[in-house]
């Protein structure tokens, strides 16, 4: 037994109290969906966990109607202080049931328990705790006095951080005074349904949060429902594009958190031990199922061989296997479909001339697995340098000068995140200025915090989540008249009040600004409410 | 003895130069009373694409200028416009049939809006940025940055004020602009381009197209190198289709506005064309 071998140390599933079947959580209660139910499985074993309801269009309509009622009768009338107290309660309940949520997350998603336990669930609690405090301080959110909630928020989240994405969506929406219909991903509904039980324990008024399960068509029905005022989506750029088209011409506001192909730039003066750990964390955290993953390693040419050698040696020590084992570093790929996409793109990398190296690790017989993989000799034009693989696959490219690093880093339609490794602070700040990405990590990677805005440039979407900016995405200024000037992606808040900006110089009578008259095409979309 | 006037040829403004439309097309611009004023250039798809190329080339320098510098450059536009006040008043009287008082008021307001936005250049980042108290040993800051190339359909019912109200805020953060002028009142837009060309605005930072917004705008809405589109003056166009087209590259979109005070001064018009960048940096004594 070498020093790397450990006895199995699986987290017990006894802490779970799962039901065999889950309904939709609508208006404070679990109800059966009218679509064909589906099963959620453990990607590590392919064993069934539970049967989950499938929301059809009528169910979506019920959920939106419940959210509308709760908005009008309860939530929009409640004081910010009381809304905040509900959110604080939820934060505490999440902390109290943290172990259960972590086990359920690792079971349903396949991520290592050390990540769900130490990253996902603590951040979920932190997110609710942070936004709870905002609920009675909205005047300071940057939109002037008395900003108003938008109404009903439709939220569609991905499978890579199921409960954490739920928290990113629900916490700011509720703090700002909106009500919510949330759809978790088809392959990872479990923790959202446990979260619904937490809402019952918190005695959150019925209908304020509704959770409906289903696949893409359920999400599409939700996003396009005319009773929805705000759409928040995290997922692929392809679906984000479709949503942007779907809601064009409507009054719906949108936050889109889409794909990425982040450059992780390593200069030759980088603190190399930390950089190696950072590169590993950047792309192999959560099996690489991270939209902001550092999937393109840009390493200065003179240290390329050293970095690659050390990476290979480090990756050879990673332990792949049972997500519930406390010693596991790399868990299961979330679904067969995703595994096939990773394999396909990886094969493309080989076909396009890059050299593939995979960590030597035993692949379990059942379940979906992919060994940590590095491609060297990757061309900037290669598909593995351009497309989001969303798996544990790193493409290594080189550069000689900072200018070349910046040009290569920005050579992508995406712009979500980037990393910089160097000991020289002035260079880090100058390079950070030039990178076209919404989140830059310097000498660290994949850090998240509820106080810190997160979101993309370019085709990585628009709007921000986290911090004051994330709150503003669920608010509008008090004056209705100013709404027309608001960006569709209302993430940055702050529209000056008319009194602040009016000038008396113009002799022309100033008509009070009214909302733009819609073309017939738009008005046929129907009236809301 | 009366003197024979020397009329001006109105052309496009692309990359700091004044080319005719590559298509060779022009259209008649008439006064409010129906008299001939000028033949304006009727920009084509190729002109629009040339303008985007010029704007893209200009973004880096303009965005990289200090905020203090951008503020001074924008303020200088107001200074130069003030000096040519009489020309713009006369142009607006002719084109819009406005009274002297109304035309003067429009020019004055346009000048004052340049001043207002100039003052924002080195302040909006302080108002919309943030130091973030994250739970860990990190320096964490969020700052607004320009979105990049912004296409604008100028408000169609004024010669100067609407145009300035839409263009000025997009410039504040460091974006470069391609603006489609009012179809009916294009002449002041080109006169403004002459002001820009003789001020300190770097070439390509503002590009002005005249012609048919209905013809030009779809090419801008679908252009992959345009980051955002302001449809403020597009209410008469099929703007929902434009928005759908813009979604292909996930452009930031501002919706049409109508009325004499469309694109009223607002900080939101600056931030609509910014991106929030958050930078994390480790803190350590070692």
Automatic annotation (TrEMBL), chain A:
Low complexity bias spans: 519-529
Enzyme active site: 257
PROSITE patterns per record: ALDEHYDE_DEHYDR_GLU
Pfam families (alphabetical): Aldedh (PF00171)
Keyword Coiled coil among UniProt keywords: no
Domain Aldehyde dehydrogenase span(s) in chain numbering: 31-476
Keywords: Oxidoreductase
Region Disordered, annotated ranges: 485-529
Family: Belongs to the aldehyde dehydrogenase family.
Name of the featured protein: Aldehyde dehydrogenase family protein
Species this protein is from: Agromyces salentinus
Lineage: Bacteria, Bacillati, Actinomycetota, Actinomycetes, Micrococcales
TrEMBL record, chain B:
Pfam families given in the database record: Aldedh
Record key words, sorted: Oxidoreductase
Top-level taxon of origin: Bacteria
Keyword flag Oxidoreductase: yes
SUPFAM superfamilies named among the record's database cross-references: ALDH-like
InterPro entries from the UniProt entry: Ald_DH/histidinol_DH (IPR016161), Ald_DH_N (IPR016162), Aldehyde_DH_dom (IPR015590)
Gene3D superfamilies cross-referenced by the UniProt entry: Aldehyde Dehydrogenase, Chain A, domain 1
Residue intervals of the Aldehyde dehydrogenase domain: 22-237
Cleavable signal peptide: none
Protein name: Aldehyde dehydrogenase family protein
Species this chain originates from: Agromyces salentinus
């Amino acid at each position: 037994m070498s020093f790397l071998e450990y006895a199995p140390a699986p987290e017990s599933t006894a802490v779970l109290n799962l039901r065999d079947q889950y309904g939709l959580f609508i208006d404070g209660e679990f109800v059966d969906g009218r679509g064909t139910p589906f099963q959620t499985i453990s990607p590590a074993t392919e064993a069934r966990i539970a049967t989950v309801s499938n929301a059809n269009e009528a169910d979506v309509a019920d959920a939106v109607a419940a959210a509308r009622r709760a908005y009008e009768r309860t939530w929009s009338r409640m004081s910010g202080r009381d809304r905040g107290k509900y959110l604080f309660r939820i934060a505490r309940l999440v902390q109290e049931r943290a172990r259960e949520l972590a086990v359920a997350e690792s079971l349903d998603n396949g991520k290592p328990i050390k990540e769900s336990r130490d990253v996902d669930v603590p951040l979920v609690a932190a997110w609710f705790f942070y936004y709870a405090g905002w609920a009675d301080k909205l005047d300071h959110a940057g939109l002037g006095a008395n900003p108003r909630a938008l109404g009903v928020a439709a939220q569609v989240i991905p499978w890579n951080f199921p409960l954490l994405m739920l928290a990113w969506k629900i916490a700011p929406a509720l703090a700002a005074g909106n009500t919510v219909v949330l759809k978790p991903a088809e392959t990872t509904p479990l923790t959202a349904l446990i979260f619904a039980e937490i809402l019952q324990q918190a005695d959150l008024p019925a209908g304020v949060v509704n959770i409906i399960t289903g696949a893409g068509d359920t999400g599409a029905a939700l996003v396009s429902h005319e009773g929805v005022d705000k759409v928040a989506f995290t997922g692929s750029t392809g679906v984000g594009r479709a949503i942007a088209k779907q809601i064009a011409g409507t009054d719906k506001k949108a936050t889109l958190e889409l794909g990425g192909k982040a450059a992780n730039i390593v200069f030759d003066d980088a603190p190399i031990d930390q950089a190696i750990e950072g590169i590993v964390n950047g792309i192999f955290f959560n099996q690489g199922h991270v939209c902001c993953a550092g999937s393109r390693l840009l390493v200065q040419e003179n240290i390329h061989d050293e970095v690659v050698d050390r990476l290979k040696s480090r990756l050879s020590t990673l332990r792949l296997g049972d997500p519930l084992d406390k010693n596991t570093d790399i868990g299961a790929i979330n679904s067969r479909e995703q595994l096939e996409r990773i394999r396909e793109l990886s094969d493309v990398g080989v076909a396009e001339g890059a050299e593939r190296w995979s960590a030597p690790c035993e692949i379990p017989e059942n379940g979906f697995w992919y060994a940590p993989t590095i491609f060297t000799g990757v061309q900037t034009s290669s598909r593995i340098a351009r497309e989001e693989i969303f798996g544990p696959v790193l493409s290594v490219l080189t550069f000689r000068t900072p200018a070349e690093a910046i040009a290569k880093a920005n050579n992508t339609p995406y712009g979500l995140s980037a990393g910089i490794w160097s000991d020289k602070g002035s260079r880090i700040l100058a390079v950070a200025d030039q990178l076209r990405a919404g989140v830059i990590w310097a000498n660290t990677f994949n850090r998240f915090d509820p106080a810190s805005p997160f979101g993309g440039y370019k085709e990585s979407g628009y709007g921000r989540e986290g911090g004051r900016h994330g709150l503003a995405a669920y608010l509008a200024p008090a004056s209705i008249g100013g709404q027309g000037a608001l960006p569709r992606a209302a993430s940055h808040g702050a529209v000056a009040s008319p009194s602040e900006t009016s000038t008396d110089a113009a002799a022309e009578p100033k008509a009070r600004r009214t909302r733009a008259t819609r073309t017939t095409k738009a008005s046929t979309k129907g009236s809301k409410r | 003895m009366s003197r024979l006037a020397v009329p001006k040829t109105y052309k496009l403004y692309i990359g700091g130069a004044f080319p005719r439309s590559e298509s060779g097309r022009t259209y008649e611009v008439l006064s409010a009373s129906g008299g001939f004023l000028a033949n304006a250039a009727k920009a084509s798809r190729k002109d629009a694409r040339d303008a985007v190329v010029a704007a893209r080339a200009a973004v880096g320098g303009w965005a990289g200028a200090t905020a203090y510098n951008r503020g001074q450059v924008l303020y200088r536009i107001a200074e130069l416009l003030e000096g040519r006040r009489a020309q713009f008043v006369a142009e607006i009287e002719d084109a819009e049939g406005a009274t002297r008082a109304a035309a003067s008021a429009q020019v004055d307001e346009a000048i004052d809006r340049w001043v207002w936005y100039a003052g924002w250049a080195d302040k909006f980042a302080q108002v919309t940025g943030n130091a973030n108290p994250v739970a860990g040993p990190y320096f964490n800051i969020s700052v607004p940055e320009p979105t990049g190339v912004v296409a604008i359909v100028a408000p169609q019912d004024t010669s100067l004020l609407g145009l300035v109200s839409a263009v000025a805020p997009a410039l504040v953060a460091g974006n470069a602009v391609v603006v489609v002028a009012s179809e009916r009142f294009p002449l002041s837009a080109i006169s403004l381009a002459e002001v820009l060309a003789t001020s300190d605005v770097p070439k390509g930072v503002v590009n002005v197209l005249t012609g048919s917004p209905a013809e030009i705008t779809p090419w801008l809405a679908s252009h992959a190198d345009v980051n955002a589109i302001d449809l403020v003056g597009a209410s008469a166009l099929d703007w929902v289709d434009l928005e759908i087209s813009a979604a292909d590259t996930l452009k930031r979109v501002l919706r049409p506005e109508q009325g004499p005070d469309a694109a009223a001064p607002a900080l939101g018009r600056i931030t609509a064309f910014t991106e929030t960048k958050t930078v994390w940096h480790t803190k350590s004594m070692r």
